Amino acid sequence: MNTPSGVFSPPRPPVVPAPSVPLAPAAPTLAVPSYAGFLPGLESAAPADEDALWLQDALLGPHSADIVRYLGLARDCGGGPVLDLGCGAGRLAVPFARQGFRVEAVDRDADSLERLRAWGRRIGPHVSERLVTTRADLAGLRLRGGYRLVLLAGAMISAVPPGARPGLLREIAAHLEPGGALALDFTAHQPRGLAQDPSRTWAFQVPRFDGVEEWTVARQEFDLDGMREHITYHSVRTGRPGGERVVTATRKWIVDPERLTAELHGAGLRVERRRGHRLDERTQSVLLVCRARD
Predict the structure, then answer these.
(1) pLDDT (tens digit per residue) in 162-203
(2) For the chain, what is the HEC assignment?
(3) pTM (2 decimals)?
C-alpha cells in the first residue's frame, strides 16, 4: 500500500467518463490525491488484459514507498528467505532480489508471474537466480519451506475470503523461522462512516512517461451486509486519435481489525508492532508486524 504524500491541484479537471456510466451519488465527495496517495482496491485486481496491467503497474509500481519499509524489516529479520504472497508482477519481489534476498513469489495469475520472471531476467542472473515463483491461490495455500519474512503487502489480506483467512495465517505461522515475522497491511474503516457514506468517488492522474495523459475517476461502493467493497476505475487517455476509455474493476473484503487480531492470535502469532496512518476521518491505513507467540 502506498504512503500518502499530500494532495495536489491538477492542471485541469479530470475527464469524467460518458454519462451512460453512473459514477457518483447525487452529492459525492471528490478528492484528488497524488498518484502516491492512498488508492484502495487495486491491489486485489486480477489482471485481465494489457490495460488492466498498465493501471496496476502505474499505481502500485516499483516507486511505491512501502518497499523501503519492508526492506528494512527484512534486514531486521536477518535476511531471507522472503515469501511474497500475492506478488503480482514483482513490485516487491524483484527489488528484494536486487538487494540480495532470496524470494519466493506466490500469485494465482500466471501472466503476472511470467512478467515477474521476465523482469528478473532483464536485470540479470544475479537477480533472476534469487527468484522462485509459485502459482497458487492464497485460499488453501500450502507452503514447503521456512521463511524469515512473509509479506501480505498491498492490502492482500483483503483479497482472501474471511473463511479462508484463519487457515492461511496458521500456514504462515507454521513456516516462520525462529525470529521471523509476518508483515501485512490493510485499510481499516469505521463501520459508522461506511453506513453513512457507502459510496465514494475520487479522481487522480495516472503517472505516465510515454506522452499520453491519463485521468482516472474511481467509484468505491461498500456492502456492509456482505462485508465487501467494489471499486470501478474509469480511465480516459488523451494524446491518441479520438482518445481512449478503459474500465477496470476490483472486489475485495472489508477487514474487521478486531476479528483479524483474534485470527492472528489463534494462529499462534502476536502483533509486535502496529502502525496506523489516518487517511480521513473515517479511514486508516494499518501496518501490522507479527511474530510467533512465546
Answers:
(1) 999 999 999 999 999 999 999 999 989 888 888 888 998 888
(2) CCCCCCECCCCCCCCCCCCCCCCCCCCCCEECECCCCCCCCHHHCCCCCHHHHHHHHHHCCCCCCHHHHHHHHHHHCCCCCEEEECCCCCCCHHHHHHCCCCEEEEECCHHHHHHHHHHHHHHCHHHHCCEEEEECCCCCCCCCCCEEEEEECCCHHHHCCHHHHHHHHHHHHHCEEEEEEEEEEEEEECHHHHHHCCEEEEEEEECCCCCCEEEEEEEEEEECCCCEEEEEEEEEEECCCCCEEEEEEEEEECCCHHHHHHHHHHCCEEEEEEEEEEEECCEEEEEEEEEECC
(3) 0.76
